Amino acid sequence: MSISTAGVVARPETVATSRAPAEKQSGKQRRNRSGRPRGRPDVARWLSPVGLVLLWQAASSAGVLPPDKLASPLTVFVSGYELVLDGSLVDAFLVSSSRVAVGFVLGTLVGGALGLASGLSRWGERLLDPPVQMLRTLPHLGLIPLFILWFGIGEEPKLALVAAGVAFPLYLNLHAGIRQADPALLEAARVLGFSRFERIAHVVLPSAVPQTLVGLRIALGTAWLSLIVGEQINADAGIGFLINNAREFLRTDVVVVGLAVYALLGLTTDALVRGLERRVLRWRAR
Amino acid sequence: MAGAVSIRGLAKEFGTRRVLDGLDLEIAPGEFVALLGRSGCGKSTLLRILAGLDAEVEGAFSVPDKVSMAFQQPRLLPWRRVWRNISLGLHGVDGRAVAEKALAEVRLESHADAWPLTLSGGEAQRVSLARALVREPELLLLDEPFGALDALTRSAMHRLVEQLWREHRPSVLFVTHDVDEALLLADRVVVLEAGRIVAEHRVDLPRPRRRASFVDLRVEVLADLGVDDVEAA
Ligand SMILES: Nc1ncnc2c1ncn2[C@@H]1O[C@H](COP(=O)(O)OP(=O)(O)O)[C@@H](O)[C@H]1O
Ligand SMILES: [Mg+2]
């Protein structure tokens, strides 16, 4: 595993701070690249994924793909169904989800507090930003050996890993978002007699929201990634445990079921953030 | 006196560049003064100083306690509804009621709950104007507030500003580079050049004014701005 997304600060779509030409945008946004009205699914896009699954099934049935390397889609589906019925998938799901949830909350608290402190105060930035910027160049998954030494091999290193994966992208994007506040709006706020608190509450923080939501999405992606890696450490429950256990018995069907659950969980949390985004950013021109 | 502005020997440097250089200007309470000048001559700099946004200056000036300003761009907070944009920063009043009254004055009462990004340019600028007026300023600073508007919206805005000025009677310092606009609205037109006021004209014409009534004055002001009337016409 050499993937680290902890250092990513992505750019949110351009935020219009004064008046954006709403009329010009709306016409463009309603259609996507293939010229279909938004919201209607493009059946053509499902051709190749479905084709690949069929090919996979054909290869398994023909014996080209031995089940100890990769189980057939049908076997995976049936195994998944059985694992749901006997409750083991649900248990694993709950354990893994709660690991992510706890780690995410911890990481959000730390990353959020540090981001606010260094975004809103000059001294906060001087003191906090340099060490965080240095640490973020370190892929946080590389911390596993230290975490094991510090926290042992129980739940703590897994939670710490998720928390670290969440805290960095959140800090970086929140900090960048706060720093991006439009000086023209801040100036207007001064002329209009805003107090310092009002400037922060109505100008600085709202303008940091789009970037912070970007950070949140990256953080959630990293949280799942951290969980998957963390669950390789001596897990005795959770989806990682399910997968590792299955590996020992060459049950590639169960391994694939576990991977599919990871993917579904990732998609679900991403959809949640998108929903939050739509709600929080509803002031953007329609 | 409430509303009076007095500027003596005001100077402002950016690096080595002296943008304002010994500027003198008096504005009487309730007087509407238009400030003309070429782009980059320091008009916005002067307004920012008077609004308290730039304190590093030489010379002396006094402005009333209540100063308010409308910028060339409306500078509304896109994430706050229109009425909140107007009432934020006001303390100890019923914000909603005050905002609704101000919106009615700029004929936007139906837009109180709209998001700023859904407004047209003219509407956003009217909200910005309402936001400045709701603070009941004794001095209203307007920095080319209509520069980005089309001709029709502009003339509607001229009438609106004149009407609001008559009702509330703040002193007004109105920056524009449009001579007609200045002559339509102002009691007095002053020209800024090389860091100081180099010319001034009193506009003693009845209101509402028509362009035909200041043809000669227009030529004089244009000459002060160094523009040959033939090319300006
Ligand atoms: N913050 C600043 N730093 C450096 N130069 C500035 C700054 N603000 C304005 N200037 C310069 O001062 C001059 C006057 O600017 P300004 O007052 O905006 O002119 P205008 O009359 O067009 O409003 C310009 O040459 C501008 O480049
Ligand atoms: Mg200017």
Automatic annotation (TrEMBL), chain A:
Gene Ontology BP annotations: alkanesulfonate transmembrane transport
Region described as Disordered: 1-42
Coiled-coil spans in chain: none
Domain annotation ABC transmembrane type-1: ranges: 89-273
Organism domain of life: Bacteria
Keywords: Cell membrane, Membrane, Transmembrane, Transmembrane helix, Transport
Subcellular locations according to the entry: Cell membrane
UniProt membrane topology term: Multi-pass membrane protein
Basic residues: compositionally biased ranges: 27-38
GO cellular component: plasma membrane
InterPro entries registered for this protein in UniProt: MetI-like, MetI-like_sf
Residue ranges of the TM segments: 100-123, 135-153, 159-178, 254-276
PANTHER family found in the cross-reference section: ALIPHATIC SULFONATES TRANSPORT PERMEASE PROTEIN SSUC-RELATED, ALKANE SULFONATE ABC TRANSPORTER-RELATED, MEMBRANE SUBUNIT
Family the entry assigns: Belongs to the binding-protein-dependent transport system permease family.
Protein name: Sulfonate transport system permease protein
Species classification: Bacteria, Bacillati, Actinomycetota, Actinomycetes, Pseudonocardiales
